[in-house]
Inverse folding.
C-alpha cells in the first residue's frame, strides 16, 4: 500500500540519475543508439512531469518496442544470446521510464536497474567497476526511499544520504555473507559474452600472429612458486604444440588425451598459476606438468587442457618435472604426424636438409649443426621483418635472415622434418617479469614465444630454442632488451607503463597496482568453491560445517545487535528530552527538600516550589513555563533552551539549604 | 468460517492483553509488528534471480551485489521498526456529527526523539491517511470515517503502519485509543404535531409552521447562556451595556417535542425530532423534549440543544 499513486519528484529525479549511472558501465559494448534512446526518453519523461507532454498510448508503446527490438537485431544480428539479451534489457529499462505512471511501475524500473548492474559484471570485473557500481545502487535505493515519501515532501539530498547510510550499515553483513555463503559450481551453463576481443595465442600460428602479440602488454598469467623461481632462461611456458604445416601456417593437430609415457626425474617445481580469461581451453605450465585440478587433463603433447574455455580468472596448482623423459617410443601415426610436410615447395631448404642428413647421421649432431648455423650466419632478431612471399622458409633461411621466434622455430622444424627427424613447434610464453615478492613471475602477451622440440629415439622429446642462438638476450633478459636498438618494444602503446620501467617511482606504482590487481583477482574474483573450502579449513579446522553455522550466527547476531543499539539508542528510551529534564528539575528541588507529591501536577508542583523558594522563584517559573509550553501548549521548545534554563536554576540554588536537607 | 471467527476472537483477546486500550499509547517493541511487504517479497525474488546468475556465471561481483542488497533488506528491518518505535499516539477527541456525514476523529502523533516519516493511520478497509512527524514535534491528524448508525461511533483499533524507508517491510500496530464520536440522528424535515410543554391536559394538535413574530416584551440584562442573536446591538453601540431582547411569547407558550406524539418507526421519529431541535434552536425558541425514557424541560441555548441531540442519539442504546 503506498501513499498516493503518483511518483514523487525526489524519486523521479533519482530514477533519471540512476539510469545514467546504470548505463555508463555498459557504454563500451552497447550500440550508440542506446544513448540517444536514453536522452530522448529522459527528456520525454521530464516533459511529462512538467505536464508538457502526454504518456505514450498503447500504439506508441508497441511501435517503440518493435523499433527497439529491430534496432537490437540490426546491431547484434540476433535477438537471443547474452549480448543481444543485455541490449534488450537495457532498452527495456530505458523505455519503461516513459510509460512509468504509478509507484509500482517505478519499482519495476528499479528492479530492472539492479539487473542491469549485474549484467555489467559479466563484461568487466575490475575493482573500478565494483566501486563504481555502488553509485547506481545507492541512487536506486534513494529512488526507492523517494517512492515511500509523501508527495513532494522528500528532498533529494537527504534521501540519498539515507540510502548511503543504509548501504554503509549493510556493508559488514555483506562481507560476512560474501565470505561465508557457501559457493557451488554452476547449476546450468549460460551463454557468455562473445564480443570480448581477446588477444592471445590461437590454435594456429603464422609469424604475424606472434608479432601481433608482441605489441600487447596485457597480463596473461602470474605464477607463484613455492620456492625460488628458476632463472628466466629456463621459463618455457608451454601452451600447445603445432604439428601440422600447410606451407604458410603451423596449426594444431587433433591430439587425443591418450595416456602418455614419461618418467619423472630430478627435482619437481611446485607453483600455482593465476590465469586471466583467455576464452581458450589450454593452460600454461613448465614441462612436464602435472595438475590434479578437477576438469584439467594432460594431452598427448604434454600440454594441460581444461574441459571448458577459461572465461574468468582461473587459479590452478601445478607440479613440473623439468628433467623428465617424454615418450621413449612413438607410435607410427605419431611419427607420421611429426614428420608431416607439404608435398612441394621450399626446394633450397629441402636440399640443405638432405646435405645435413648425409653429413650428420646422429640426430643430436644434426640439430646442433642447425642451431650453430643460426649462430654463425648473419641472422638478425627483429620485430620488423621484411615481408616474405612464396617459399617463405627458403627466403628467410637464405636471403633475408631477419625475423623473430616464429620464423626461427618454423624454419628449424621444417629443416629437421626434411632431414627425417620428428619435430614440432611449441607455442607458449617464455620468461616473465619477476613480480612483487620475488616468488612470482608475471607473464604478458609480449612474452609470447615459439620454440622447437625434436624426438630422439633414446631420449624422447628434447626442447631446443633457435632464437637463443640469434638473440640470447631475448631469452635471458626479455623482449625489451632484445629489440632495444630498433626501439620497437610496445611501439604502438606509447602510454603503457611498461615502457617506463626505468623510472623508479613509476615502476613502483605500476608494481603496486599490479599487486592490487593480483589481490583482487585472487581474493575476490577467484573466491569460489575451492578457495572458500581452503579458507574455511584454515580458519575453522577440518570439520568446519557446524562451526561455520555458529560463526555465521554469532557474527551476524553481534553485528545486528550493535547496529540496533546504534540506531535505536534504547538507553534514551521512555522519556522525551523535556521529560528527562523535568525529572532532573525534580531531583534538584528534592535536594532542597521539596518533593513532588503523588498526583501533583507539574504546574502546581512548580507553583508550590516557587512559593517555598521565593529567592529562586523567577528561575523555577521560567523553567516550568518553558516545560508547560513544550508539553501542553504544543509549542516546540528546543531541548537546549530548557537545559539552559535548568542550569540557571541550579546556579541560583545553594547546594543544600541549611536545616531543610533532604537525604 | 467458524475457525476464522474463532481465530479472530483469539487474536482480539491477545491484542487486548498485548496493547491494552488507553487514550495515550507509545509504540515500542511489544506493540510493533513487522513483516516483509509485497514489494519486499518481489525484491526477495529478484535477489534469488541475481544469486542464480552469480552462481551460474561464478561471478564474485554479482555475488557481492546480491549480498549487499540482501544485507540492505536485513538492515532495513531495523530502520522500518525504528520509524514507528517511540511514536506516541494520543486521542484528541472529535466533534459529534449527524448520521450520513463523515465523522472526524482527531489523533495527535508525538515524536519523542526522532523523525517519523510516512506514518499511515486509519481503519481498514477505509483507505489510510499519511502523516510525517518532525523530530520532537507533534502532528495533529484528522481521520475521517463514514457514519452508518446513530449513537456512539467506536471505530475500534486504529491501524498504524509504515513502510519507510525502502518499502520492503511493513511495520504496523493496532492501537486502541478509546476513540469515540457521537453520531446524531440524520435530521429529516417534516411536519410536527406540537404539544404544550407545561404538562397541560389540552394538547392542541397545531402544526408549527414558520416562525411567528412574537410580542416584544422589553429588554433585560444579558446573562451567560443567552443567545447572541437576541442581543440588542443598537443599545450596545450606544454604550448602554449588553441588553437582550425579551419576547413574551417565548416565555408564555413553550413547545414540547414529544416522541410519543409522532408516527413512523423509531428512527424516523428521531430524525424528525432532530430536525425540529435544530430548527427551533436556530429560531431561538425554547422547547422541551419528551422521550419515553427521558424528559428534558423547556429551555433554550446551545447547551440545551446539545443535550437534546445527545438524548436523541443515544435513545434506546446502551451507553
Amino acid at each position: 500500500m503506498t501513499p498516493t499513486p503518483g511518483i514523487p519528484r525526489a524519486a523521479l529525479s533519482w530514477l533519471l540519475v540512476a539510469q545514467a549511472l546504470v548505463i555508463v558501465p555498459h557504454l563500451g559494448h552497447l550500440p550508440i543508439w542506446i544513448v540517444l534512446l536514453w536522452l530522448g526518453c529522459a527528456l520525454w519523461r521530464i516533459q511529462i512531469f512538467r505536464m508538457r507532454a502526454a504518456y505514450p498510448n498503447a500504439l506508441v508503446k508497441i511501435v517503440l518496442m518493435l523499433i527497439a527490438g529491430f534496432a537490437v537485431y540490426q546491431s547484434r544480428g540476433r535477438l537471443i544470446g547474452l549480448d543481444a539479451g543485455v541490449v534488450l534489457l537495457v532498452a527495456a529499462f530505458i523505455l519503461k521510464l516513459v510509460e512509468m505512471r504509478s509507484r509500482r511501475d517505478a519499482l519495476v524500473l528499479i528492479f530492472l536497474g539492479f539487473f542491469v548492474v549485474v549484467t555489467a559484471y559479466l563484461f568487466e570485473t575490475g575493482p573500478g567497476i565494483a566501486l563504481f557500481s555502488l553509485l547506481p545502487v545507492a541512487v536506486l535505493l534513494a529512488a526507492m526511499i523517494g517512492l515511500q515519501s509523501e508527495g513532494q515532501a522528500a528532498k533529494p539530498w537527504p534521501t540519498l544520504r539515507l540510502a548511503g547510510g543504509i548501504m554503509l550499515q549493510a556493508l559488514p553483513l555483506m562481507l560476512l555473507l560474501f565470505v561465508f555463503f557457501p559457493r557451488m559450481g554452476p547449476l546450468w551453463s549460460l551463454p557468455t559474452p562473445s564480443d570480448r576481443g581477446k588477444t592471445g595465442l590461437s590454435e594456429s600460428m603464422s609469424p604475424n600472429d606472434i608479432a601481433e602479440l608482441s605489441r600487447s602488454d596485457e597480463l596473461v598469467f602470474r605464477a607463484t612458486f613455492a620456492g625460488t623461481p628458476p632463472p628466466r632462461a629456463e621459463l618455457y611456458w608451454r601452451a600447445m604444440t603445432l604439428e601440422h604445416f600447410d606451407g604458410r601456417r603451423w596449426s594444431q593437430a587433433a591430439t587425443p588425451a591418450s595416456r602418455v609415457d614419461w618418467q619423472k626425474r630430478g627435482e619437481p617445481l611446485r607453483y600455482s598459476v593465476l590465469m586471466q580469461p583467455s576464452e581458450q581451453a589450454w593452460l600454461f605450465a613448465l614441462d612436464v606438468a602435472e595438475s590434479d585440478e578437477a576438469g584439467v587433463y594432460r594431452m598427448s603433447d604434454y600440454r594441460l587442457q581444461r574441459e571448458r574455455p577459461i572465461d574468468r580468472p582461473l587459479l590452478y596448482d601445478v607440479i613440473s618435472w623439468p628433467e623428465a623423459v617424454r615418450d621413449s617410443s612413438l607410435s607410427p601415426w605419431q611419427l607420421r604426424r611429426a614428420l608431416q610436410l607439404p608435398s612441394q615447395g621450399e626446394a633450397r631448404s629441402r636440399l640443405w636438409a638432405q646435405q645435413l642428413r648425409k653429413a650428420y647421421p646422429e640426430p643430436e649432431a644434426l640439430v646442433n649443426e642447425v642451431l650453430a648455423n643460426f649462430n654463425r650466419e648473419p641472422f638478425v632478431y627483429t620485430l620488423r621483418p621484411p615481408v616474405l612471399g612464396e617459399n617463405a622458409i627458403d627466403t628467410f633461411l637464405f636471403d633475408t635472415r631477419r625475423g623473430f621466434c616464429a620464423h626461427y622455430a618454423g624454419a628449424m622444424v621444417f629443416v629437421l622434418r626434411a632431414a627425417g627427424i620428428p619435430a614440432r613447434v611449441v607455442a607458449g610464453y617464455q620468461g616473465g617479469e619477476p613480480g612483487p615478492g620475488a616468488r612470482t613471475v608475471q607473464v604478458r602477451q609480449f612474452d609470447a614465444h615459439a620454440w622447437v622440440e625434436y624426438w630422439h629415439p633414446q631420449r624422447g622429446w628434447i626442447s631446443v630454442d633457435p632464437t637463443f642462438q640469434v638473440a640470447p638476450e631475448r631469452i635471458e633478459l626479455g623482449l625489451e632488451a632484445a629489440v632495444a636498438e630498433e626501439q620497437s618494444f610496445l611501439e604502438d602503446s606509447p602510454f603503457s607503463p611498461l615502457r617506463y620501467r626505468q623510472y623508479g617511482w613509476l615502476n613502483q606504482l605500476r608494481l603496486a597496482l599490479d599487486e592490487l590487481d593480483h589481490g583482487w583477482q585472487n581474493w575476490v574474483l577467484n573466491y569460489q568453491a575451492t578457495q572458500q573450502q581452503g579458507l574455511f579449513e584454515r580458519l575453522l579446522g577440518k570439520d568446519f560445517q557446524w562451526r561455520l553455522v555458529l560463526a555465521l550466527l554469532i557474527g551476524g547476531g553481534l553485528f545486528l545487535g550493535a547496529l540496533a543499539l546504534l540506531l535505536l539508542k534504547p538507553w534514551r528510551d521512555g522519556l522525551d528530552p523535556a521529560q528527562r529534564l523535568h525529572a532532573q528539575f525534580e531531583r534538584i528541588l528534592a535536594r532542597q527538600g521539596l518533593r513532588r507529591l503523588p498526583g501533583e501536577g507539574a504546574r502546581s508542583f512548580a507553583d508550590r516550589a516557587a512559593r517555598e523558594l521565593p529567592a529562586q522563584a523567577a528561575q523555577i517559573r521560567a523553567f516550568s513555563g518553558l516545560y508547560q509550553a513544550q508539553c501542553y501548549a504544543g509549542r516546540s521548545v528546543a531541548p537546549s533552551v530548557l537545559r539552559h534554563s535548568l542550569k540557571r536554576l541550579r546556579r541560583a540554588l545553594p547546594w543544600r539549604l541549611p536545616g531543610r536537607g533532604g537525604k | 468460517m467458524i475457525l476464522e471467527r474463532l481465530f479472530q476472537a483469539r487474536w482480539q483477546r491477545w491484542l487486548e492483553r498485548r496493547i491494552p486500550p488507553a487514550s495515550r499509547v507509545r509504540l515500542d517493541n511489544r506493540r510493533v509488528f513487522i513483516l516483509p511487504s509485497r514489494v519486499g517479497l518481489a525484491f526477495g525474488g529478484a535477489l534469488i534471480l541475481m544469486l542464480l546468475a552469480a552462481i551460474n556465471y561464478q561471478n564474485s561481483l554479482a555475488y557481492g551485489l546480491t549480498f549487499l542488497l540482501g544485507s540492505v533488506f536485513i538492515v532495513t528491518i531495523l530502520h522500518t521498526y525504528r520509524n514507528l518505535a517511540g511514536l506516541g499516539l494520543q486521542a484528541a477527541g472529535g466533534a459529534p456529527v449527524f448520521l450520513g456525514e463523515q465523522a472526524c476523529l482527531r489523533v495527535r502523533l508525538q515524536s519523542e526523539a526522532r523523525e517519523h516519516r510516512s506514518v499511515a493511520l486509519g481503519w481498514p478497509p477505509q483507505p489510510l491517511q499519511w502523516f510525517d512527524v518532525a523530530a520532537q514535534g507533534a502532528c495533529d491528524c484528522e481521520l475521517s470515517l463514514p457514519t452508518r448508525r446513530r449513537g456512539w461511533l467506536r471505530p475500534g483499533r486504529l491501524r498504524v503502519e509504515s513502510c519507510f524507508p525502502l518499502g520492503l517491510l511493513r511495520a504496523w500496530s493496532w492501537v486502541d485509543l478509546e476513540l469515540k464520536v457521537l453520531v446524531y440522528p440524520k435530521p429529516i424535515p417534516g411536519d410536527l404535531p406540537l404539544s404544550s410543554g407545561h404538562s397541560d391536559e389540552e394538547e392542541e394538535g397545531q402544526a408549527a409552521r414558520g416562525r411567528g413574530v412574537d410580542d416584544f416584551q422589553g429588554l433585560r440584562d444579558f446573562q451567560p447562556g443567552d443567545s447572541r442573536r437576541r442581543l440588542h446591538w443598537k443599545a450596545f453601540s450606544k454604550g448602554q451595556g449588553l441588553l437582550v431582547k425579551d419576547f413574551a411569547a417565548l416565555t408564555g407558550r413553550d413547545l414540547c417535542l414529544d416522541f410519543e406524539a409522532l408516527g413512523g418507526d423509531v428512527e424516523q421519529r428521531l430524525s424528525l425530532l432532530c430536525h425540529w431541535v435544530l430548527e427551533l434552536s436556530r429560531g431561538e425558541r425554547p422547547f422541551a423534549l419528551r422521550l419515553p425514557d427521558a424528559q428534558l424541560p423547556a429551555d433554550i441555548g446551545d447547551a440545551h440543544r446539545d443535550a437534546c441531540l445527545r438524548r436523541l442519539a443515544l435513545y434506546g442504546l446502551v451507553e
Notes: Residues 9-180 of chain A form one domain. The two ends of chain A are 57 Å apart (CA to CA).
